Amino acid sequence: MTPSLFFIQLAILLLPGVLWARIDSAYGTKRDQSQFEFGTRAILFGLTSYAATYILFLLLNAPFEMIDLANAADRNVLTRGMVIQTLWAILVGFAASIIWLYAVNYKILTRILQGVRATKRYGDEDVWEFTFNSNSADVQFVHIRDFANRVVYSGWVLVFSETEKLRELVLSEVDIYDFEGNLISSPPRLYIARAPEGLHIEFPIQSTRPEAIADVT
């Protein structure tokens, strides 16, 4: 087997991990990754996908082929069984990546550690992302005060940006008031974009804790 053909087959076998890593990079991880870090995560995600596939095959009482990497350079490793396993691993890896995104974006591990008072940190993301990634009703309804234009935007958060360069929000069921409390308009949707240091957000729905107002900078 030529080295080029060997690496092509190896790349095919790594597809479950690469797919998972791509999804994590696009929708989970909030920081830039080096090629080495991406490759490492792809290998770990790939091994996890194949391990989960192996367990699935055991439960289904289906045969599972092991790869003989010691002789992989001398023979074809992409047997029919291996192709089927790889396709299953891709499906398993895709499903696992969705579960992984829930764990990452909703900070499940962080919240568990906070619940047992093991840490007060909220992770690598900033307060903006941590707050609006929460599914609590406390942070889904907001009042945004625009001191420059002396208006208040009141509505439900539909979409928020995940970039530090510009804070963007899309609100629904919006009421716009002036600073005297007079209703100006009530659009069904409203897009707001502000610099991070110029945004003042209030959370009027009272929670079990006293933090009802937040200045996001």
Keyphrases for this structure?
217 residues; disordered C terminus; seven-stranded antiparallel beta sheet; 7 strands; 41% helix; alpha+beta
Structure description:
By secondary structure, this protein is of the alpha+beta class. Helix content is 41%, strand content 19%. It contains 6 helices and 7 strands; from the N terminus they run ααααααβββββββ. Strands 1, 2, 3, 4, 5, 6 and 7 form a 7-stranded antiparallel sheet that branches. The longest helix has 26 residues, at 80-105.
Quaternary structure state of the chains depicted: single chain
Mean pLDDT: 82
Order of helices and strands: HHHHHHEEEEEEE
- Total number of helical segments? 6
- Rough outline: elongated
**What's the total count of β strands?**
7
- Quote the distance from N terminus to C terminus: 58 Å
How much helix is in the residues?
Answer: 40-55%
Radius of gyration: 24 Å
State the major sheet. 7 strands, antiparallel
Question: Strand fraction band?
Answer: 15-25%
Poorly predicted regions are: 208-217
Provide the structure class.
Answer: alpha+beta
How is the topology of this model organized?
Elements: H1 3-13, H2 15-27, H3 35-59, H4 80-105, H5 108-115, H6 127-132, E1 141-146, E2 151-160, E3 167-178, E4 183-185, E5 189-194, E6 200-202, E7 213-214
Antiparallel strand pairs: 1-2, 1-6, 2-3, 3-4, 3-5, 6-7
